[in-house]
């Protein structure tokens, strides 16, 4: 596993690591063995740097002799690691990196992604935003591959349903103060502020959105983040609508029941936003190896293509054309709840894997 153990995305990495270990355990019935061989998880810190991620991938492949790569929290890192997976001919099971290009323009056959991508988010929330919140939109996102790919995915869907994106605004992922960027939003005066963000400073971003009165001036929508983000938004975000990949109370299935129960027992709190994705990656790895009877990518690729498996959100299926896992997605409203000291997502609609399937956009496929 290569992920951002340190840096702005460290919180996501912690969720991912816990989820992967639980997924491997669940899929092996607690033995942590597959095909009669023990499973060993080696975690390397990419620090959020693509160059570091590349070097850690080479180290894992050449020195440690790993059979499968998993990660990362960062799309730019995942792009760098994917190149090494192709070079060394090993499977790279991606979660939670969400940039579309990993399963479109920069696709290679060794990539499989259990995490949702930005177009799946956009197909879940774009139409609902325009029809329910407003038609003039400013889109704030990080100034990196994830942020720009998110804007590229969401904005055409806003426009498809009659919305107008007035401007894209991009801020550094490690920004300490968002006031300058939010002042631009106030001056543009859209009906809707769309926020696409990832990282530990999301807490600061949403605090400043509240402090500057944007929740009162306009509708604010987002791909809703992890527990820290919900705490940071606080009561000012009650009533806000948005897309969320996972919240532990939303799915109703035996896999999620097991995940919630075991995570609380071991870590003293429920699973978080990307814990479910890590678990799905672990389950997919084990089920793929079982089906292939091998850890060799030449056997795993045809075994994984088209494979369906049960994970925390329900049924996931790797689409053969681009290896993107189609999966249920959620559109929610943030509400007060007596059992939580932060707003929690209330389900408005669960969209099926088919409803949120992005177009296939792989050159030559």
From TrEMBL:
Gene3D superfamilies: 3.40.50.2300. It comes from the Bacteria. Pfam families: Peripla_BP_6. Residues 1-336 form the Leucine-binding protein domain. Keywords: Signal. Belongs to the leucine-binding protein family. This is Putative ABC transporter substrate-binding protein. It comes from Symbiobacterium thermophilum (strain DSM 24528 / JCM 14929 / IAM 14863 / T).
């Amino acid at each position: 596993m290569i992920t951002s153990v340190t840096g702005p995305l460290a919180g996501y990495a912690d969720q991912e690591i816990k989820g992967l270990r639980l997924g491997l355990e669940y899929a092996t019935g607690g033995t942590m063995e597959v095909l009669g061989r023990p499973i060993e998880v080696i975690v390397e810190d990419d620090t959020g740097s693509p160059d570091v991620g590349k070097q850690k991938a080479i180290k894992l492949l050449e020195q440690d002799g790993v059979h499968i790569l998993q990660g990362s929290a960062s799309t730019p890192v995942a792009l760098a690691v994917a190149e090494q997976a192709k070079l060394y001919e090993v499977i790279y099971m991606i979660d939670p990196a969400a940039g579309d290009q990993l399963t479109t323009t920069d696709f290679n056959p060794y990539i499989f992604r259990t995490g949702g991508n930005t177009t799946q988010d956009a197909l879940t929330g774009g139409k609902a935003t325009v029809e329910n919140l407003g038609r003039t939109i400013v889109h704030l996102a990080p100034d990196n591959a994830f942020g720009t790919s998110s804007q590229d995915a969401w904005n055409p869907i806003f426009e498809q349903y009659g919305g107008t994106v007035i401007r894209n605004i991009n801020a550094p992922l490690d920004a300490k103060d968002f006031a300058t960027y939010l002042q631009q939003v106030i001056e543009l005066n859209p009906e809707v502020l769309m926020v696409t963000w990832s990282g530990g400073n999301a807490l600061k971003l949403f605090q400043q959105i509240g402090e500057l009165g944007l929740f009162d001036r306009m509708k604010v929508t987002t791909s809703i983040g992890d527990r820290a983000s919900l705490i940071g938004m606080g009561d000012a975000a009650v009533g806000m609508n948005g897309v969320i990949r996972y919240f532990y109370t939303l799915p109703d299935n035996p896999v999620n029941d097991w995940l919630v129960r075991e995570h609380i027992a071991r870590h003293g709190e429920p699973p978080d936003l990307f814990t479910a994705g890590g678990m799905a990656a672990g389950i997919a790895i084990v089920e793929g190896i079982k089906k292939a009877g091998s850890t060799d990518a030449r056997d795993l690729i045809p075994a994984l293509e088209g494979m369906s498996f049960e994970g925390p959100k329900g049924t996931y299926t790797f689409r053969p054309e681009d290896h993107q896992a189609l999966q249920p997605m959620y559109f929610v409203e943030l509400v007060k709840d007596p059992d939580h000291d932060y707003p929690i997502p209330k389900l408005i609609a669960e969209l099926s894997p088919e409803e949120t399937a992005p177009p296939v956009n792989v050159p030559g496929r």
